[in-house]
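During the reporting period the student researcher (J.K.) took over the structure-prediction task from the postdoctoral fellow and processed the backlog of single-chain submissions. One of the processed entries is reproduced below for the supervisory committee.
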Amino acid sequence: MVKSIAPGFLARLACGLICFSAFHGLSANEFTIDDSRNFTVTESTEMFLDDEAISQEDFEALSHEGYLVKFDVGDDVSDDFTAGTVLSATATIQLKGPVTSVSPLEVFDQRLIIESDTVFEDLSPSTLGSLNPGDILEISGLPIESGGLRVLRLELKSAGVDEWKLTGVVTGQSATSIFIGTQEVIDTGITPRDCDSGLVTGALVEIKATPDPGFAAGQPLDTVTDIECIDPSLVVDDVSGALIRAVQSGLITALALPGSFFLNEQRVLFDSTTVFIGGDVEDLQVNSFVEVLGELDASNDTLVARAVTFRQSRVRIRAPVSPADIDIGNGLTVLQIPVIINSLTEDEDNIVASGIGADQHIEVRGYLDGGVVVASRVRERGDPEFDDVDVRGPAADLAGDTFTILGVNINTTGSSFRDEAGNSISKAAFFALLTAGAEVAAEDGLYDPGSHTLSNAEIQLEDRTNVSKPAAPAIDIKGGLGGRGIGTISKFTAAAAGSPPPGGTPPPPPAPPPASPASGGGGGGGGSLPAGIVGSLLCLLVIRWFTKRAH
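J.K. obtained the following structure tokens:
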């Protein structure tokens, strides 16, 4: 026999459904940056696209993933900068204009570095080859000091755009022009804006121009309407003297070792307490893609780093290389590992550019991009020695007391072991810590080409993700600003109507409208009640109705 359901249960169930529906509209939504920082968006959050205000709904309707964004977080920012209420966010576009070269891909003669995390809109990696000179692209990315852009987001604008845009570093000047890389820009009659030291070589500028259907590669850009010097750092002018939580992702633009480097022109300080994740100090190079977590000292615009995270899995190889292993102009093979180069690779001994005449010991430092080793730096390290070989990368193929790094078999017999902090540990302790994908370095080992095996190495676990970071210092909240960041948008959803403002306190309900005889007290121009109040009243009515039924 089927038992009847208790009215009280139905009341609670119905009330729960109604309340969920009513209050769902009151919930704030999340704004995800770099896949790991989940911030809250409310109706008060201000959104901008290239300094133009845009509604949250319109921004959500865009394919917003991949935009470079600068954002401010309120006084509820967490110590690790993974949560808080976004006060404002500005997504930026660095290039809008015609393709001037297909291979290599360039816009306004600016080389585009496309990697596995690049977001495509109306294009895909497989259709890049179908682009033609003159096709219009819109690009959000990170300007490269030597010219070009590390692309975060790439969109094909088949219908064209109303305005062209070129962002880059001034590399040269003449009486009537400036140069962004090899692209000449005619600046006659244009008064640059916000250039405190004048328009000088080395300045980062944003140039706007009227589209010119006749423009082609090699021609000067002569339809310029505006030139503005821009500051890509975290500078905070309105709260001078405050210490502010900060996080910034970007490319290292200059090194000032020991103890300092510049991240998209933002000065970063680090010391022995700074934790390096996914790499070490020796991996700091110009154009390395890193994230810095710390505090911004607004009195001198210095970012003091608690942690520096390499955004791509770092690779280090040191081993003998033969002349036949060099693919001149393209890359090389080391320890049977294919390595490619790009326009950012430092080939200081011209190893890939010109080849080598005899076997040499070569060091490659780089990163994994979609499983492919990309060299950041290639250099000669002396005579070839098969008993002095290093390989660093993610561990794979774990089986008993063996594993591989970048396909190289690691025989641990006779090896020594260290943990993430560099402490000597036993083999058993090492394998208890080791997981697939963990960053491991095997150094000073003996390499056997026949078995593709490295043995007798000094092995260290370098996956420092779980290493404790220094405690966050107290911060001086001024003007409600608790933190500022720069990163890449992973997800955005507009806040629902009625969501609470920063601070988490819901807005007070409006006073009820005056009673109106004509409407029975429900109209009179007072507007409708907020959804949350209506939901609460419905819940009470449902409970009362079911309670009467039960009696």
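The committee noted the following: The first strand starts at residue 29 and ends at 33.
J.K. will present the remaining backlog at the next meeting.
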